[in-house]
Amino acid sequence: MADESTNLSDFDDRFEEPSEDPLFSIGEDPDRVDIFSRKELLKVGHVPESTRIVGRDDEIEAVAAELRPIVRADPPNNVMIYGKTGTGKSLVARHVTERARRAAESNDIPVGTVYVDCAQHNTQTRVARTVTRTLNENEKTQFDIPRTGIGSGEYYDYLWEILDIAYDSAIIILDEVDRLDDDDILMQLTRAKESGKADCHLGVVAVSNKIEYRDQLNERVKSSLREEEFVFQPYDANQLREIMEHRRDAFCEGVLSDDVIPLTAAVAAQEHGDARKAIEILRHAGELAERANASRVTEDHVRNAQEWAEVDRFEELLRGSTTQVKFILYALARLSEEDPETDAFSTSRIYERYGETADQTNATVLSEHRVYELLKEQAFLGVVESTRTGGGRGQGSYLEHRLVQDTGIVLKSVLRDSRLKELV
Ligand SMILES: Nc1ncnc2c1ncn2[C@@H]1O[C@H](COP(=O)(O)OP(=O)(O)OP(=O)(O)O)[C@@H](O)[C@H]1O
Questions:
Q1: Which of 88, 147, 208, 341 is deepest in the core (most CB within 10 A)?
Q2: What is the mean pLDDT of the chain?
Q3: Cβ(158)–Cβ(188) under 8 Å?
Q4: CA–CA separation, 48 and 275 (whole Å)
Q5: How far apart are the CA of 90 and the centre of ligand 1, in A?
Q6: Residue 65: left if φ>0, alpha if ψ -120 to 50, beta else—which one?
Q7: Which residues are ATP-binding (predicted)?
Q8: Please, which pLDDT band fits residue 392 given cuts at 50, 70 and 90?
């Protein structure tokens, strides 16, 4: 592994000036048209200002009502926001929390706010560390909180002191809260005041796309959380269109063809009304136009960007699957392509094609039974649909399998695996 402290500028310098490196030469193409003017508006994680937030007024008002007491130095209510991915949960949580902080501060009430992505910080220690280090106001507390070497208990000790010294209230957003490996953190935070650990009001805004999350919490956590729940509904095509219209200025004037935003909205609405997907497809369509040196972003760029997004999503679904599983899916995809009249294929037919595929790349060929088991596993994951047929007279019943996703998408995705590339 490379030494962490290796300075890249120490590497052998073959190009005197960075601009001389042909790999990075931008070139002055007189016909080149700029596509983006403020691309950052389409970046994942960008928090748009309030004028760009569309169609969530009721939700913003509802969440704000729970946090409003902090403006009068009263305790806020805890909030739980559920909803499918890309429905604006994190956005609303962050937006309302920030506005609450500003409103309280204009009344001279200091409010601390922290955003924790629990997918990244999924242990009690990591969450406690992030919250403590973010809220630590060094000039007021004189604490220098270590990054490593102490456990959650010590972080909490610091935290309670920081809260007492620096704040009247604090709001902690726990995004993707279902990814936490331990719900004790919720107990610690929601009971801090009543258990006398801190004198500051603490509000938790928890966000999850798993509606069943609450049922998994233990009774003590549930009773201390006593939260207000909100469920965000997916966006329809009109709302998605509005959301993108409000970021149109990410592009240079006149480069978006008229049908680009409506088409992107229609595509994302079919998916399940995911605003993130819509914004990603729009950005990628622009990048494709840029790479092709086109002067406008067109419907074709959107369609290609949509396919790219689907291949990406399918790849995500296969993350962690072995190359053998990809051989099996490749075999099934090829069969479906070669024989479009047939809707589903028996295990033995897939096995035969799989054997040829594995042979071609000199990979180990698994037994038919193992392939059957792997197909059943893929059916469980929703990649394959397996149905039992009656079979003919004298034949027993057997399983037939078909791909759930479009064949082209599956092929593009599995062929990204370097072992399968040689099949092309
Ligand atoms: N109402 C809206 N107005 C403007 N932009 C929005 C709106 N809703 C979502 N977005 C944008 O869509 C993207 C996804 O939103 P967000 O991250 O809030 O979704 P989420 O529901 O938290 O999704 P996940 O569960 O996957 O985290 C962000 O870039 C966000 O800015």
A1: 88
A2: 89
A3: no
A4: 13
A5: 6
A6: alpha
A7: 87-91, 235, 247
A8: low
- Residue 81 CA to ligand 1 centre (angstroms): 13
Asked if residue 336 lies in contact with residue 407, where contact means CB atoms within 8 angstroms, the answer is yes
From ligand 1's centre to the CA of 278, what distance in Å? 10
Place of tokens 């009304």: 273
Quick one: CATH architecture of 50-232? 3-Layer(aba) Sandwich (3.40)
DSSP structure class, residue 196: T
pLDDT number for residue 61: 96
> For ligand 1, what atom is nearest to the CA of residue 87?
21
Residue 389 in marked binding region: no
Mean pLDDT of 405-417: 91
Judge whether 235-319 and 320-421 match in fold.
no
Q: Is 91 in the pocket of ligand 1 (CB under 6 A)?
A: yes
The answer to whether 132 and 145 have CB atoms below 8 angstroms apart is: yes
What tens digit of pLDDT does each residue of 349-387 get?
999 999 999 998 888 999 999 999 999 999 988 899 999
Does 123 appear as a known binding residue? Answer: no
Q: Is the CB of 276 under 6 A from ligand 1?
A: yes
Does 86 contact ligand 1 (Cβ within 6 A)? Answer: yes
Report whether residue 83 contacts ligand 1, using a CB cutoff of 6 Å: yes
Beta carbons of 165 and 135 less than 8 angstroms apart: no
Fold of 320-421: Arc Repressor Mutant, subunit A (1.10.10)
Which amino acid is present at 213? Y
Residue 358 CB contacts under 8 Å (≥ 6 apart), including other chains: 324, 327, 364, 365, 366
* Beta pairing class for 398-403 and 345-346: antiparallel
The answer, yes or no, to whether any atom of ligand 1 lies below 6 A from the CB of 244, is: no
